[in-house]
Amino acid sequence: MGVVGAVTIGQAPRDDIVSELRLLLGGGVSIVEAGALDDLLHEEIAALAPAAGEAVLVTRLRDGSSVRVAHRHIMPRLARVVEALARRADLVLLLCTGTFPPLHAACPVLYPERLLRNFVQAVASDWHIGVVTPDTGQVAEQQTRWSEVGGRVTVCAASPYEDVSRLAEAARDLASQRVDLIVLDSLGYNVAAKEMVREVAGVPVILPRTVLARAAAELL
């Protein structure tokens, strides 16, 4: 069916994401991975941490640990990786829900943030939307970003890479505020997390990796 490039802002491989993408895309699809931090050592990655007031991105490294990096540091590295991988693929999937400008590529690039925003706006523009984001440093930005979609927005933080009990707590918090829909705004959240949040909160839950995979399947 084709070759799909999967680009993480952290380090490849991202078995935690790609294993579920494979199931959703079905047989016949070959997935090639690359990461913006693939060639960096831990001390070099530490130098990419956000300063006060900078846009924060949270991602996972090859050893399973999570890191906070500044958006401005990731952009040039991400652009190079996408351009290189696009020469080998029919379609590139960006494994991050952050906001990115159009990236130069020889094939289509799917941006999860755009897919999520348009999907939620289409089905729930006048609903009370709950958003779960990985890091407390992202809450204010997410409040602004999702308020542009329409309706009322409540944001809370719970990392997909830490104790799942915090995610359950976030789900209870959002349920107590009577949200109509929850968006797990990171590719780090998995299908099991979606099912748990839906069970705890009792409302529909939107998961970026499933939205991304289903959009990709339409193009393959």
Give a topology summary:
Blueprint: E1 2-8, H1 15-25, E2 29-35, H2 42-46, E3 56-60, E4 66-70, H3 71-86, E5 91-94, E6 109-110, H4 112-124, E7 128-133, H5 139-147, E8 152-157, H6 164-176, E9 181-184, H7 191-201, E10 205-206, H8 208-219
Parallel strand pairs: 1-2, 1-5, 5-6, 7-8, 7-9, 9-10
Antiparallel strand pairs: 3-4
Helix pairs in contact: 1-8, 4-8, 6-7
Brief characterization of the structure:
With 220 residues, this protein is α/β, with parallel strands linked by helices. The chain has helices at 15-25, 42-46, 71-86, 112-124, 139-147, 164-176, 191-201, 208-219; strands at residues 2-8, 29-35, 56-60, 66-70, 91-94, 109-110, 128-133, 152-157, 181-184, 205-206. The model has no long low-confidence stretch (mean pLDDT 94).
Globular, elongated, flat, extended or rod-shaped: what is the shape?
globular
Q: How would you classify the quaternary structure?
A: single chain
The radius of gyration computed from the alpha-carbon positions, rounded to a whole number of angstroms, is 17 Å
Number of structural units classed as domains: 2
CATH architecture of the largest domain: 3-Layer(aba) Sandwich
* Overall pLDDT confidence: 94
